[in-house]
UniProtKB/TrEMBL annotation:
Molecular-function GO terms, alphabetical: cellulase activity
Cited Pfam families: Glyco_hydro_9
Protein name: Endoglucanase
Protein species of origin: Clitoria ternatea (Butterfly pea)
InterPro entries: 6-hairpin_glycosidase_sf, 6hp_glycosidase-like_sf, Glyco_hydro_9, Glyco_hydro_9_Asp/Glu_AS, Glyco_hydro_9_His_AS
Any single GO BP term: cellulose catabolic process
Catalytic activity: Endohydrolysis of (1->4)-beta-D-glucosidic linkages in cellulose, lichenin and cereal beta-D-glucans
Keywords in alphabetical order: Carbohydrate metabolism, Cellulose degradation, Glycosidase, Hydrolase, Polysaccharide degradation, Signal
Amino acid sequence: MGLTQRLVKVLVGSIILLSVTCRSRSWKHDYGEALSKSILFFEGQRSGKLPPTQRIIWRKDSALQDGALLIPHHNHFSHRKVDLVGGYYDAGDNVKFIFPMAFSTTMLAWSVVEFGKFMGPDLKHAIDAIHWGTEYLLKATSIPGFVFAVVGDPYADHNCWQRPEDMDTPRPAFAVSRDHPGSEVSAEIAAALAASSIVFRKFHIGYSSRLLKRAIMVFDFADKYRGSYNDSLGRWVCPFYCDFSGYQDELVWAAAWLFKATRLPYYLDYIGQNIHNVRNFGEFGWDSKDAGINVLVSKLLMNSSFISEPFNLNANKFVCAVLPESPSVSVSYSPGGLLFKPGGSNMQHATTFSFLFMVYAGYLKKANKEIDCGNKVIASPSRLKRLARGQVDYILGSNPLNMSYMVGYGPKFPERIHHRGSSLPSVNQQPGHMDCEEGSFYFGSPNPNPNLLVGAVVGGPDIKDSYTDSRADYAHSEPTTYINAPLVGLLAYFKSNPS
């Protein structure tokens, strides 16, 4: 890249930085309100028997027979059925994909580990959200040698617009096994259980120990029987949650969480022996964990400079690839300042990357370090925090449309989100069974959704800051658990550190 091109790139980055900084100063957000609502969203995504404490009351019990129908093509169970009731619907459909469910649970736990001290009364609800996930992950790993990865027929479900309370599409359960492995889904479950065990250590030591014991068992299974669930479960997970980055990153990611939970040298050795297998894409989300590994391990080993150096270097590269003013920036930004990457559900990148920035900023501050991105661009801890806050503020309404992308927050927010339960009359309003044909009418209706899925953050606008409030535009109007989970931690921090 020539000098002129670099200067233009820095100038464009500086303009974006200036616009984001100016908006952040001129807008005030109630981060506490947004935090409460971001956690409440998870209650709207619950599957199974709902507790008396359920606060989103238009949702009712659903999928109470999950686990009754097992697919026998390679899963030779001695059990006639397995209890797979519970867990979360990952997005606006009614399938339970355990890979993104586990990642969302990991991120909820990491949010509490890092920022739980700022949550106040919302800490209890955050822990409840984690517990709802871990209870299901324990069920999904309850039979030695098998890990359940999907419940529900995604093709039948996606062709049917129906309330979860009314589901009459098939609910088969698919598992990976020794002969048909799925290391990525198994290792992500291990990471979620290990991270959650750290959370519960302060509140319920017995439950914490149970989670950690299961995490160790599932990690051993994932590592010993290596292979991708793409190959084992094929059409049931692809293209929905196909693993594009391979399973090596999940194995190291799980080992990092197990090291944090146990401090056993075995897991640190495992990381050192296997990190070379992880491709450094500079990504972080339900599929790719490499940037998260580098940030997490850097913080775990901050007093061991020789061991942590490669992780620090890769984490620094990640930061410089995201900062808009950096000469090595590799992500895009909308004119309004939203971090943007190709594909659907873009807000997942804004929330996960911002979360890593906040965690790494804390590491840099404690280590008294800054990052040199070249061309006199220095990334200080405060700069990382400002970028994260700019993304959070954009989500909450500091954007060209003056629109919050969190349902129920602010005066203007998405009203026609791609979400079955939200878009159909609730059981309270219409108690009779509704089939697919009836649901199609509501899918195509121009009216706002009758039920507010409070706290749901949708996929977001396009790269030009435009947003069409349409159920059909699922890439932009569908909420997901893995968008919200990292946002919980960010909002907790900004609630107590608003300036």
